[in-house]
Amino acid sequence: MKYRDMYQWLILPLLLFAVVGLLFFGSACESTNTSISPPSKTVAPGETFTVDVLVTPAVHIAGAQFDLSFDPSLVTAISVEEGDLFNQGGFNTFFLPGTIDNDAGIITGVASVITTCGGTMTVPGTLATITFIASPIEGTSALDLTNVIAGDKQGQRVTVQVNSGSVTISNP
Amino acid sequence: MNKWMRLLIVGAILSLAIVLVPLSIASAQEISVSIDAPAEVGEGTDFIARVSITDVTNFDAANYDITYDPTILEVTDVTDGVIGGTAIPADVWGFTPAETQGTIRVINNVPGLPGVSGSGYLAEIHFHVVGEYCNTSDITLSNGVLSDTTATAITATWVGDSVHVNTVLDAGFSASPLEGVAGVTEFTFTDATTGGTPSYNYEWDFDNDGTVDSTTASPTHIYASAGTCTVSFTVTDASGNTDIESKENHITITAATPGDVNSDGHVNEEDMMLVYDHFGETGSPGWIAEDVTRDGAINVLDMILIGQNWTEG
Questions:
Q1: Which site from A125, B44, B100, B144 is most exposed, i.e. has the minimal number of CB atoms within 10 Å?
Q2: A94 and B309: CB-CB below 8 Å?
Q3: Residues of A with CB below 8 A from B300's CB?
Q4: Nearest-CA residue of chain B relative to A156?
């Protein structure tokens, strides 16, 4: 009876935990992470600053895209420049800086792909660097990544995990 | 016989006359023998004109003359007719005068039968058109006699016809472009048919596999696979004339290069920019060439396929 009780109250829950844990962490580990770096930042009013959009591939990817929204009353996007993500392997790339809309507070269609046949990337890197100017007023603007898509060399979408960020404008 | 009795008899006779005379006229008018020829015939073509008959009873024999303009038409043969499912021999015919085009005499005889009733045709007259464009020839019936199985004449109305000579139906078409990419290039086929009698019916067989692919005058077509295709185009005019234009190995289709959005044989920045122009758009899968992945959305995945098939730079 003792062993049966042990089996019921210890072994079974452990097995269940292990299965759930494998499913959860297994899927999470297969997601290509796209994030704002640094995730939060404090800048002075009127300061020009940059944030990076980092990509940590979980599988071989050959291209990625994103949109980035922000509070246009607090920050103004100046430029979008290509990062080193897909250049790391010496690959040629094609980069779309997207379209900045400072009225709506969004940058749409930023994308980069490898244009070397068969080229893929698994090393983390910066997809794009965005330059902003902080407004004279204090406040916090979310930097939300949306419409994030990454694909493998067959043009098939891979699973992505998105971590947005924020910037706080504060007098020193 | 008093006055009232005489009036009664005269009235009865008049009544009978009023009833019977129109009946006899009506029965005579119901039988019609007519030439049924196409209104339009092509230069140099052959056509058939039927000697049609309606509502005949106990028909046994007939003879009639058919007159036409010998500078426009020539009779080449006369073949049997059919009334009510029974063949009507028309093997006795000849030119009048002999061996001279212009008039033929046809004799039908139904020997050994109890008479034929119904509607049909007495004979088919086979003509060849020797006239030119815009000529018109009347085809008339004359000296017609019909008789029944009692050798009694059957009264009939004899009606002629006419044919107008048109140009010969000549099916034709052009295609543009003549070379393209499978699944991408839209080929336009343009009808260039002349002659015959409008309007036309069209049958396009873009790959000559025997299946009609389109029935419109000037259709478009996208070939699914690479190859060289023979295009067959069949046109039928309003007179029933048909002509076929077939162009062998007319269209060359090459396999599509993934990512070659503008189908110029190169995968390069131009293709990327075409995708960029439609970036973010959605539609049915493959609705535009920029949807390289054919997933119904224009995004980085399409750019990836372009990048992976890059041929320049």
A1: B100
A2: no
A3: 63-65, 111-113, 149-151
A4: B301
Does residue A137 contact residue A72 with C-beta atoms inside 8 Å? no
Alpha helices in A10-72 (DSSP H): 12-29
Q: Could you read off the pLDDT of A94-146 as tens digits, one per residue?
A: 999 999 999 999 999 999 999 998 899 999 999 999 999 999 999 999 999 99
> The domain that contains A95 carries what CATH number?
2.60.40.680
Q: What does the H/E/C string look like for A25-37?
A: HHHHHCCEEEEEE
* CA B108/CA B124 separation, integer angstroms: 12
Give the ipTM.
0.79
Q: For residue B141, give both structure tokens.
A: 């019936």
Same structural domain, A39 and A63: yes
Q: Mark whether A48 and A126 lie in a shared domain.
A: yes
Residue A99: Cβ-neighbour burial (10 angstroms; 0-12, 13-18, 19+): middle
State the residue range of the domain holding A11: 1-30
Measure CB to CB from residue B309 to each of A64, A109, A117 and give the nearest one: A117
User: Quick one: tokens of B22?
Assistant: 């129109």
Q: Which domains are seen in chain B, by residue range? A: 30-166 (2.60.40.680), 173-254 (2.60.40.10), 269-308 (1.10.1330.10)
- Per the structure block, which two tokens stand in for B10? 């005269």
Q: A83 and A160 in one domain?
A: yes
CA gap B41, A143 in Å, rounded: 79
